[in-house]
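User: Assemble these into one structure.

Assistant: Restating your components, then the assembled model:
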Amino acid sequence: MEKVIDEFDKDQRELIHLLHEIQKQFGYIPAHMISQIARQLKISESEIFGVLTFYKAFTLKPRGKHLITICMGTACHVRGAPKILDEFKRELSIEPGETSGDNLFTLETVNCVGACALGPIVIINGDYHGQMKTREVDKLIKICRQKNGKR
Amino acid sequence: MKIIIDGKELEVEGKKTILNIAQENDIFIPSLCDHPRLAPFGGCRLCIVEIKGRKNYAPSCCTYADDGMEIKTKTPRLQRLRREILELILSEHPNACLICSEKENCDDYKSTIRKVGETTGCVLCSNNGRCELQDIVETQQIEQVKFPSFYRDFEVKKSDPFFDRNYNLCILCGRCVRICHEVRGASAIAFVNRGSQTVVGTVLDLPLLDSGCQFCGACVDVCPTGALTERAIKYEMLPEETKKSVCPLCSAGCELKIDLMGGKILGSKPSEDGAVNRGQACVKGRFIIRDLVYSPRRILKPLIRANKKLEEVSWEEALDFVTRRLKKYKGKEIALITSPQLSCEDNYLFQKFARERLKTENIGSSYSFSPLAVYHEMSQKNQLGLALNFKIRDISKAKVIFLLGEDLAVSHPLIWLEVLEAVKNGAKLIVASPNELPLNRFSSLWLQIKPGSEFHLLSFLSRILIENGGAGRLSRIEEFDSFKNSLNKLDISQVFEITGITEKELIKTARLLLEEEPAAFLFGMGLTQHPWGSQNVAALQNLALQTQAQLFPLGLENNLRGLFEVGRNYPDKGLAFNKIIQGASSGDIKALYLAGPMPYLNKAKLEFLVLQDCYINENFELADAVLPATTFAETEGTFINEEGRVQRFKKVVEPVGDAKPDWWVISQLACKMGNKGFNYKDVSGIMKEMSKVIPGFSNISYLKLENGKEIFIRDEKKRRKSFIPLKDNGPLYKTSKKYPYLLFVDYSLDYYRSLPLGRESLGLRKIRDSRWIKISPEDAKKLKLDEGESLRVESSSGSFNGFVKIIESMPKGTISTSLLWSEDSDFSAVSFFTGFFQEENALGMLPVKIKRGK
């Protein structure tokens, strides 16, 4: 962990880059790393906390293997995104922002991903699934589970 | 340039915001987030105005005036928009009382309902009557809030010392976050989360104690609502009266506003127009003043020892008793200890009383250990004639700052703010300290120096600078050659090992020191407390000459300079503090008069001990006579701060019990012992005499001070520039197998007279407990010690107990504790410190061993 941090300049402008790097390598920002980041970049721990809670890209909790992002923007909302979300919640038994007990799935919502024509949209690990229907939810989850089983 | 506001033509100079100009011209624009000490923010949007030719409404707090601007501040459209914005703010702030049509009648009937945990309206709010939001609502005539109200339901945070945080009342103006970041440099709080979820918080929602808060109270003072409130006065009524005073708790000399109710102190706040502090204070000035005046340890009545017991008597009897007993001793057998926390007038009378009545020159005080004393002595020895006056504000203009031997943010928080300002303006800060200080975050370079090796660091730096040219200009300064020769004679083969600093770091330091001007060298007791402190200061003085830096000696006590200036008048110097302690233990000193703090005297062979103090301390039980003195708040006089500024402070409250001002006690005793010279009616008579007798005080008059004139003490005029040849002082402190650790003292000034502030204030004790023994994680692991465990420290001269505090940045092999003057005997480091008091002017460090306590 120190290695990741040490590679960055002692400059507070590096904060977001550094957080991205940690998020990428560990899948989340471990809380105990905040003080190390603070020392390296010479900023206060509370300031770092302010930045990392501002951006949705950073999480303090470990994320599951499969990140499911559901667009709740206006267009998707009108086209039934809440129903899709409910279906995911029911299938996975978790709320948005939470990770399933087996650490496979993390459910998140965003407000518009800029592909409104394809709404409602679900993004799983960076793959876009447009014009979602509730009955397809179960299928997508199964695919993820299978991928994992094969590994 | 000219601008027009509401049809009024105004002449404006410089870069100013529209809001500032309006305020200067008594044009009211509502605003909640703007603050004079803070950069424009534009958070609340209440201050919007119309500018001719602009499409949108401009927030006047962050729009700078331009030539020819025509501004309207009160159009009906603006008023409507402002009301709408305010209603939005109120929808997330309990508002029922704010818009109640019968609010005027409310206070009379609901005076006791306020002590509730949850605030749902003004009558239940601890800030009722001192709330800016309340004031603004009043000006905007809001009758109804049309948005649904939303209570955020946060738990009120009450676990931290001194103030509560109720973010249900927060309107997110950001003043607290900004003052903590922009002015105080702590950044302990920040905006957390985003959008409608935004809240002010700390890292991982930890208590402020664990997030770098200094508890200066600046956030509480700028909060426009009841979100942040001082706990001690939360449910008190509004102050009836506010009086100004000068804080006696460090040498910066902050001006305080003391709130009073029924003749008692409610609390203290920094004064906006204080010359030094400009609206800022520190934890001590902000939260502890009331505690120290109303301490349960205050001595209320004069006491004398009769039949082996201390008995309460009248002042007349006590004074007679002391007079009778003191008369029995010859001058040399008597010694007095005064305090640099007493006023100039008190100290002048002490000197006069000792010399004229008691015929003794033995007047000691903790002044002897101060950087000022060492600095002055060094300059005298070398006939330098140094100017001691400086301007604290000048530190903010420095481009290079070298800080040695002081955790400035703790010991001199207000001077630290000037350094911070300099750093924000691009100054380079170099810190030399054995352990990592929180303030190192702002440094360009931290030299982790081995304790006590400053001399080697400084002389080596001098040598690098000479070797790398730059000698041409300097060689004309006196003693340059002998200085250069002395440097060449120093054995530098081991400098990296002795100091623990690498060659690369040293060269970088030298480069930084030369890079830009002006340079400021700030040094504290960490540099001067060693037996070779005088050589350390000489080395620093040389380096300052080479880099054209100004020296700033940082003393601890508020009136060190005053005590020094008063004593300067008397050429004969009697025994110093250390020698008095030794004399008292050997029996050479038979009578001791204590008006300042003194280690526990249980082993002293004294025949007569007088205690003139505000507080019961360890020596109380040994005293033969006890004379209750007033605190600074109950008397008047002048202090002289670090920079030489003369500050008048006045009586704020009536004395507690029968306590009397120190000058009164001394003059009464003197009158009983002789006829002439001590008939003072009040302090102004003393000052009048001082200004005639002491040359340095000749320009001081109460009248001028009261008219707001800035007066600095007369300083030495002749300044002789000269290098000082350096001498190596031989080996540093040596540890041994028996005593493998090195103990050094923290110098934060946490005492007033003989009261350790941490004992009276639970809050301060949580922040920095004087009983902590700080130790590195490695040593703690080796000794299997846990945080908070009891610990015993032993040296060849004594031992004391304390609690383990593991500090990551402590260097291995060293421990540190606070410099205390008196504590509970269980934790008393006092008798132990007599081991320190052997050298003249030096506290030094001690080789010790540590054991787990019982």
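The mean pLDDT of chain B is 89.
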